[in-house]
């Protein structure tokens, strides 16, 4: 830290609070100690006051990661072979049933048919999902044709 008599900024206080949180997570501080030090960190005015809060704690060293050590990201399990997500259609269907039920209940409660507002929820969403599904199918078929041409 810079000279202890210089005034600390909010970013400096937040950085010390983050370090304290890491030490609490590692088990070096109890919850009470963490709360007390955190309160002191946010009321500290100088770098010297902030430095006192972490003086008895070891320096936090980030663990280096090698790019090859990171696990490969698997493809989402809920995406079908056609490239679209069947869960999206289930969500659409569930929402459609809910808004239709609300519309029907309010219409029946008043004994008159209300304006069919669910179309503004159901229609555009279905159009987007349909476009995504068709585009996904088209991409799959275009890729197959491209692979055949390359052979």
Structural features, described:
The chain has 151 residues and is an all-alpha fold. The protein is 63% helix and 0% strand. The chain has five helices and no strands. Helix 1 (10-26) packs antiparallel against helix 2. The longest helix is centred in the last third of the chain and has 32 residues, at 119-150. The relative contact order is 0.09.
Distinctive features:
single chain, 151 residues, mainly alpha, 5 helices
- Mean of all residue-level pLDDT scores: 81
How would you spell out the order of helices and strands?
A: HHHHH
- Relative strand content: under 5%
Structural class: mainly alpha
Nearest-angstrom radius of gyration? Answer: 29 Å
Q: How many β-strands, per DSSP?
A: 0
Point out poorly predicted stretches.
none
Report the total helices: 5
Q: Gap between N and C termini, in Å? A: 64 Å
Helical percentage: 55-70%
* Largest β-sheet summary: none
Dominant shape:
elongated
In brief, what are we looking at here?
The chain has 151 residues and is mainly alpha-helical. It contains 5 helices and no strands.
Topology at a glance:
Blueprint: H1 10-26, H2 31-43, H3 47-54, H4 86-110, H5 119-150
Helix pairs in contact: 1-2, 1-3, 4-5
């Amino acid at each position: 830290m810079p000279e202890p008599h210089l005034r600390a900024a909010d970013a400096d206080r937040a950085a010390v609070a983050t370090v304290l949180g890491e030490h609490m997570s590692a088990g070096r501080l109890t919850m009470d100690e963490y709360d007390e030090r955190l309160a002191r960190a946010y009321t500290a005015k100088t770098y010297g006051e902030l430095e006192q809060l972490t003086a008895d704690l070891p320096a936090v060293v980030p663990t280096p990661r090698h790019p090859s050590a990171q696990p490969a990201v698997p493809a989402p399990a809920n995406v079908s072979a056609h490239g679209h997500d069947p869960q999206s259609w289930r969500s659409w269907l569930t929402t459609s049933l809910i808004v239709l039920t609300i519309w029907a209940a309010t219409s029946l409660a008043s004994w008159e048919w209300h304006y069919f507002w669910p179309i503004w929820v159901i229609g555009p969403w279905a159009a987007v999902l349909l476009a995504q599904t068709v585009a996904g199918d088209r991409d799959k078929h275009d890729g197959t044709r491209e692979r055949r041409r390359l052979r």
